[in-house]
Structure formats: structure tokens, C-alpha cells
Amino acid sequence: MDNSLLLGNVLKAWFAQNEWPQSVSEGLARAKGWTLGPWASQVSICMSGRLTPKPPFFVALGQFNQAVAERDLAGVTDRRLIDRLRKGQPLCKDDGTPWGAQDFFACYIGELQAPPELMEPKFVVTQEMIDKWSTGVREAFRELCMTMMVPPSQAWAEVRVECLKNGVPPDEIEWVQEVVAGFREPTIEETSRQYQKWGIGQQPLIKALLELQEKYGGDTSNIKKFLSWRQRLPEPKQGEGFTALPAVAPARRIGFDPEASFRSFVSVSRIIAGA
User: Which of 60, 61, 92, 160 could form a disulfide with 37, with the two C-beta atoms 3.0–4.6 Å apart?
Assistant: First the structure.
């Protein structure tokens, strides 16, 4: 193969998705003292489809990708470079394993395709989408509280554990909790950052809510439709599931409602007394 068009298109899309300049890999390589690169000139020529790479180039790409995946920034002092690498995401296979040298070579010869979401047009987050998502997760959490028949604080304790198991880092848990509780409205910037990190397939919060609904024997039909919508599968018909929810969730009590319980007790007592 005498051109790098296949691999070049993947690198171009990868760097664009992470909002990286072509020099980002060279910046990390020089900070760490790597001798193989990948150098900015190699990346640029590869993206144009004119590079005939040698084996060390694939090794260098794998080393760079692994450092991004592990957030291995030891030795990097440039604050802008640190920020760019921390916000960026590695290229991964379907099982979540970062691409190594062999994977980059397989892509070069056409035997390995890039993740589908990487090659799709850039996803644009809208306020309508944010409203629908935040309303959906709050409604899903409310349903979970009803299924478990516990106060929100007790249900959240279990949701938190599941989110951590699904890969949500501890420093983001508070943000998730504030959104679910309705104390915080996600901004377009925050939501775009989350999408860039998780993509459309993982959805750790929604999956945590689904796993707990299944654990406690609750009705999972609504949350499964909501998850399908987030993963861009066919949407349910109008009026079904979370896709038809209003932008603002109706004011409803979550968990144990003393007033409602008392009213039910009085009603039952009257029925028994009249029996």
C-alpha cells in the first residue's frame, strides 16, 4: 500500500473530534522524551494520504493513544497541552481496549474500521435535547424511587455505586447528583463535554438506573425506550416513553409521602369500620 488515505481519514476525524492541532502528539512525545514521535509532520502528511509509514510510526501512534487512555501526562508542563490531552479521548475497539500499534497498522491496510461514531458528522447538542435528557433521567430516578419504595437519598446511594461501576469518575458524581436532583440544569458546554467523553453508546447513568430497575423488579419499558433514544435507535411512537415528556417535569413527590399515606390509612379504616 503506497498511501495513507484510510488511516489518514481516521486520524483526521480523531483529532477533529478531540479538537487537537496536528502538533499535539509531538508535544507529548517531546515532553516524554520519546524517540519515535509521532511527529507533527508525519501526522500532517498521513492525514493528506501521502505518507508511506514505516513500522515505528505505528508504534508511536499506539504509544500516544495509550498515554491518552491512561491520562499519563507525567513530564508534561505545558498547561494548554495538558488541558487538550485530558479532554481528549483515545481510539478504542468495541470492547473499550485502546488501539495499539497493530490496530493502527490494520487500519492503514484496511482490515480495521474506525468506530462508527468517529466517522459520523459532528454531533451538535441542542437545548431541546438537553431538556429532554435531564427530564428523562429525573423521571427515571423518580420511577426507581417508587419501585424501591425508599426516599431519594437511599435510592441515590445505590445509583451512585452503579455509576461508579459503569466508569463515572468520582469527581463527576456530584455533577450527576445535582442534575438528577434538579438542583442544576446542564449547560450546552457541559453536555457537549459529556457527549464527547461517553459518545452515544455507553450512557452510564441511564444504564445504572436501568440495572437497578431490573434488580428490584420494576417496569423497565420506559427507561429502555429512553436509552434507545439516547443511542439513536428508532424512537418510540409519539406519546410513548420519555420522548414525549414535557421540558419541565411535573411537580410530584418522590419516595415516601406522609400525607398520601395518612389519607390512604384513613380511607382503609373507614372501609373496615363500615364492613
Answer: 60
